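Assemble and predict.
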Amino acid sequence: MKNLIKLFYIISFIFLATVHSQSAEKVDYLKTDWSFKGLFGKFDRGSLQRGYQVYTEVCAACHSMKYLSYRNLAEKGGPEFSIIQAKAIAASFEVVDGPNADGEMFTRPAKLSDKFVMPYENEKAAQAANGGAYPPDMSVLVKARGGGVDYIYSLLQGYEDAPSGVTLDEGVHYNKYMYGNKIKMSAPLSDGIIEYGDGTVASVEQMSKDVTTFLMWAAEPHLEARHRMGFKAIVYLIILTVLVYFSMKKIWSRVESEV
Amino acid sequence: MSDHDYTPSSKVGKWFNDRLPLLTLANHLTDYPTPKNLNYWWTFGGILTFCLITQIVTGLTLAMHYIAHADMAFESVEHIMRDVNYGWLIRYIHANGASMFFLAVYIHIFRSLFYGSYKSPREIIWIIGIIIYLLMMAAAFMGYVLPWGQMSFWGATVITNLFSAIPLVGEGIVTWLWGGYSVDNPTLTRFFTLHYLIPFLILGLVVLHIWALHVPGNNNPVGIDIKKPSKDTVPFHPYIVIKDGFALLMFMIVFAFFVFYSPNILGHADNYIEANPMVTPAHIVPEWYLLPFYAILRSVPDKLLGVVAMLSAILILAVLPWLDTSKIRSAVFRPLYKQFYWILVADVLILGYMGAMPAEGLYLLIARVATAYYFLHFLVILPVLGFKEKTIPVPLSITESVLGGTPNLAAARNRESSEKLK
Amino acid sequence: MSDKKPERRDFLFTASYAVGAVGAAAVVWPLIDQMNPDASVKALASTEVDVGSVKRGNTITVLWRGKPVFIRRRTEEEIKEARSVKMEDLIHPEKDEDRAKNPEWLVMLGVCTHLGCVPLNDKGDYDGWFCPCHGSHYDTSGRIRKGPAPLNMEVPKYEFVNANTIKIG
């Protein structure tokens, strides 16, 4: 009977595994080495700064990032622009403020405390300008997609001519990593579309990696602090566990010696 | 409740204790005679207490920053994650804490199932436990709605719509639950209120749970009644405290890995998309801990019966002490039950897996078989097993060598009954 | 057997307690610190106020960091009155010259230093402000003269961006 149970377990797990592998439309995302993965993962500052450049020069034309503020750009664990740089970046955007003493709204250059300026007034305006498709807000986009960074990274490089037999409507593009392969966004990146300040060659692959890194930080601005604290916390817990383990052995030795 | 009379040594202590016997209570708790053979599966009671307190403390602090409004909830969560000092830490502990809580409670429940801890005279402990479990599910579900992401919204829609299965009044109840014609701001605010309330109800029930436990004392792996205090027992402090503490630390290491290194792995990506009443996500799945029941719900092709089946799957546990007819508690001495126990574990795991898969084709078929088996286990196998099973003789005491004093009556009775069956 | 090595046992228990206590303290801190001003509050920018339309002898009240700020364009008499007070008559001695760099403009937090109420304009025994909550009198420089408040009303950091605009903060 015992063997029967074991057999039952083995069969059911093999069975589940096969069912699982058949079911999930396995998409093999493009892989790259992310500096922020792993126990001590940190962001690559250069990549974050370049990523911001890609975002602001390319993506920001349609995609908002409404939960980020300009001050975040200078905060620790992020792109770490200097305060002066961040202020200059902020000042290059106009925000609506007010009402002033006369009860009127006015525009002024953005300050560090302001949120990222949105490309459209509201969601409806964004839809209207993009053929009915709403370009999603990018603040937490990486966490809002099943494949995470690998998905975004692959999607940006996944534009292809549609295979024969697939018909695309007007304004729809083929992307092999998109769910259902049809995407309203046209390929946003092409080699040399922007010029990096630090001299890095702006290949599609490089830009994809940089902007994805930037989006990861945007979604998880405290990732570095989390990794640092996590390591300390776990080392601490292990030390305490060892101490308590030996204390426990000591205490229980009184009982066991009696038996 | 008092195992022996206790008098505080100091005058002040005595004065206070005569008016409010807190010191007697503390003394009872520290001296509480506990079977000395409790294994690590018994440490999950303490771990669950830790989980509850963690959830209450982190929840309280999150509530200081969270805004229960359909237009602001999602944003306020992002505010917590980005701006509030250590907000990300507190929220990730709270979100993963829910999963850890359920992980611990499932181990706790299955430990009871294995060692027969629900049997006489511990039925009330068990039933209070089931009520706590139900409240936990309610709290977890409503908590999941609060970030107001897509899964929050659609989870709330689907689960509240379960009530529409009730004939005649169903629709009215759903509208009443919603406070409108769909899940919206009134729903969110009431869910927040209840989510805040329920943990304190659970806390109260936990006190009753422990109180009820301290009347007959702990069950133990051998499953026999023990004389207390005796050679079979150790005082709760320091023996059990340190053992629970050690297990808790191990548990916290696992917990910490989730919080610090994969805080979102147990959640669903769609919940980082703000709720949108116009678009339903492609796959709606509840949190992992509700998946087995979700699978049962979907495996029944009728709306009302599906809901009934799902509820029955939980409520059947409440009558478990009377469905299990065996006189022997521990599965250690029940060779057949032990086999069926492990089949049940596998069955629940399969149900959980099927709950995460789309309800179609082979998945649906497997889910149906697993659902049928789940009920078969409790309604047929358990009652029959008690009469048919040949049990292994149960030892008379935990420390077999210590046989002084009166022989253990319950154990002797168990032995007799098992011999009769032979 | 445990009696043989009391030092080790003592060390073990003490170490466990000590390490445990450190951990508990470390856990408590985030729970306390979460109530401190968060990053968005700390980043809240300065406020710029257009004071071009304020006439002499008038006070405007603006909100800065959730608190009222009094901006008073003082008359010559008020300035004279404020500057002629002897230091020894003051509960909290401060020169008006230090409180109002530009004598025409007095900028200060409109918060009574007693228990945080907002004092009333042009009231009280010293021609300045009077706090209705517990009867504190402030003079034309916003200095406490009579009543339970211990300190003068606080002058925040501010500057004139141009002749008509004050930037507070």
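Chain B has 16 helices and two strands.
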